[in-house]
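Recap slide: FAD-binding oxidoreductase, sequence and predicted structure.
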Amino acid sequence: MTLHPADESFANHLRSLLPAEVLRPVEPRYLSEPRGRWTGQAGVLALPRSTEEVARLIRAAGTKRVPVLPYGGGTGLVGGQVMPEGPAPLLISLERMNRIRGIYPQENVVVAEAGCILADVQSAAGDAGRLFPLSLASEGSCRIGGNLATNAGGVGVLRYGNARDLCLGLEAVLPNGEIWSGLTRLRKDNTGYDLRNLLIGSEGTLGIITAAALKLFPQPGSQGTALLTVRDPQAALDLLALARGQVGEGVSAFELIHRQSFDFLAETLPHLRQPLDPVPEWSVLVELGLSGGLDAVTALEALFEAAVEAELVIDGVVAQSEAQRGALWSLREHIPEANRRIGSISSHDVSLPLSELPAFIQRGQEAVSAMGPFRINCFGHLGDGNLHYNLFPPKGRDRSDYAVQATELKRLVHDLVHDFGGSVSAEHGIGRFKTGDLQRYGDPAKLAAMRAIKTALDPAGIMNPGAVLA
Ligand code: FAD
């Protein structure tokens, strides 16, 4: 079906339906994305304040056949939030829908509007003596609606699950402009198809999430963080098993870091001090969160000792203060920024069955080296089998020198991931960046079902056209 641009006459139509202050001039920040791959088009920008206003906007877009682009914090890494081609969209930013509608400490539930910044939801939970465990380096800017629309992961997935696992209910506006009030706080609700899980991870292609009921957890009484040098990725996996054997569910993060990450940090952000000398080839950032009077620092020291004895760990530091914990986490959280400053040729957010990780890393190293002296920065949420596997030009060269090889390198890495039974998008989604990969590696029956669902819910194709299903 032909779509029409969100132009001045459409803006005038919206002005007749909504308070004047809902429409705003399109600022450049709405048209860029963190990796600078695309620049979006300026159509009409709307900042609704209520679910009813979102519904009115969607109904108007449906009537006039105008594409709609939902917008959260703009931190998505696969270009779902920018529309570089086709008719210019109606961009709907949820940023003014940023109220915590209710917090229920006894139930361990918070109900937040989609425009709430993730860090604000974490703070609201903390003020109520609870923990909202979704945690990403972008948490100061990404918004709950975006987190759910991308099914975000981050460092807490190992223990608490991803955004999907943390959501009990949703309120959303569907492509026909109907409001779905599914904001249940129930933990058990087997009443038909699971619309909530359909919308989570749909990247704005099946509707706009306007609010969510989210799970909270007790705050751990004691938290501790260590950076431990491991022999190799297999030793890192063995260390994870050892840690779980010692403290069970108390392992709340387990992040693998290759030396390349520290080299990039030293080159681009030298004020961030790396505590181990010499810089290890492989290390793991381990976080424990313990309750019941157990002390996380003591438990980490015991783990360190046992791991050295088992010849899994060579060296390490256990943070002895909150400041030291913060400094260790700061290293991990700045790796994406250091990568951005160096400039990758090709970045991959992949997941693999845990036991296949060491062989994948080994085979990847061999295959990439055979194509040239590229620098590989391999780091990520090892406990979830999720690696960020990013390829950079040799030192002194620019990524633009390798534009031709970029596609080949991406194909090489993704083919390898696929051969190992992995996923080419672990936590960032498909967006516009990976639509080709979804076609190439996706199961045909699943793709056909996805198209059928899209057509049934959004027959005019107004919701984020070009994302997920090209
Ligand atoms: P946006 O970027 O605004 O939008 C993302 C997608 O969701 C788009 O398709 C958009 O149309 C859609 N969308 C947004 N809001 C809504 C809504 N209310 N209803 C329906 N659709 C909507 N991701 C991880 O998973 N794990 C990480 O560890 C991680 N670390 C990151 C670190 C950095 C430094 C950066 C820049 C990004 C990182 N990301 C990570 C990616 C990004 O932060 C997440 O994908 C995040 O969930 C996106 O949220 P957002 O609000 O910024 O969404």
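The pocket of flavin-adenine dinucleotide is lined by residues 34, 69-77, 80-81, 94, 114, 136-138, 142-143, 145-147, 149-150, 152-154, 203-204, 208-209, 336, 427-428, 431, 464, 467 (CB under 6 Å).
The CA atoms of residues 91 and 267 lie 38 Å apart.
(End of recap.)
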